Amino acid sequence: MEKLYQYASSLIMYNKSRTGTVLERLSDIIRGYEKNPSSGVNPQDNLWTSYISYLIATDENPFSILCEMVGAAKDASANEIVKKDMDNFYRIYNYDFKKAEEVIGTDCFSLLLNYKSMHKDANTYNKSVSEKVKELRLELDKAENGDDFFGIVTDFYKRYGVGKFGLNKAFRVIGEGKDFSIEAITHTSDVTLDHLVGYESQKERLVENTEAFVSGKPANNCLLYGDAGTGKSTCIKAIVNQYYNRGLRLIEIYKHQFRELSQIIRQVKNRNYKFIIYMDDLSFEEFETDYKYLKAVIEGGMEVRPDNVLIYATSNRRHLIRETWSDRPDMYAEEVHRSDTMQEKLSLAARFGVNISFDKPSKKLFDQIVTELAKGADIDMPEDELINQANVWSLRNGGYSGRTAEQFIVNLLSKN
Q1: Residues 70, 44: contact at Cβ < 8 Å?
Q2: pTM of model > 0.85
Q3: Whether pLDDT at 416 is above 50
């Protein structure tokens, strides 16, 4: 009679899902136990089927990536290989651990198959991943054979994609040189554009550009600049949340990693997503030259930036690179072509096609921000008293800004 380890070792296209995983180790542990059709397993609380669903949803291989782009190709030779893999996955998914428990003398597997979470509302990291894996698991629970598995899985790839880029919304770059990698950010903000009070024209311009990008139309790189704490970074995070279900992804990068930009773009240019390369608080001092790598990627290098990549940056400086009086053409300096130096510095900001200014809010707007944040936080306080306290707080903590207003609300909540 066939064994679990035989199903796992027979995987071909999905061999990566077996090697070095819990599936492989568990297969070795219970090698030799008989396989019987599963019955009586509660599919709503099954860690084993959730794990197998996760393996399938995250396995990036030539077939799954192709399905992400165009769906399952008809009459492709790879289909027959994958259908055999799905037949094995069907048996692995529905494996009955009762015989193993009888031999081992423990109910450890039953605990996995009937898992109850401690709290249904507990904080969940990587919600975008867990929700989609759960959706796939609930569909696979209904499958009656390997062919059903094949249809469900290929539809899932076409609908959501595969692997880290398919299931996550935001990423960061880890390491440099040969050791760099793009890793998922597992806990992201759920902020929306409605959370940012005011700045309607700024939000409208950003949405308009992003909508064009996601829709496959020409779009510009964006620079959001202005006073600190005015919501520039919040806008970027909200945009990703708004367009995530339409394939928008964000990769956060710091200026010391600009040398890896070409490699990053090379990894994502053939994926079926739109990527925003995000640079927060972007600015350079006189002695820093890494901005030249950014200039080449944005516009000017031999390699054309792919259509599925845009650069969004925030900065407190309009011109990004610090200027000195000696850079100005009407000031004395030892450099003969000092105007050329100034133009080189200004040219970086000019390569962002959309420039959106975020000015410090007026007192009226600041009061409105405080009022709206207080409503959202269910703070019960007379409006006059709320505004008076907020203005006193702003005088002590950097003046009027959305960040100051948010910090004031947090301070009120901490006292309740």
Answers
A1: no
A2: no
A3: yes
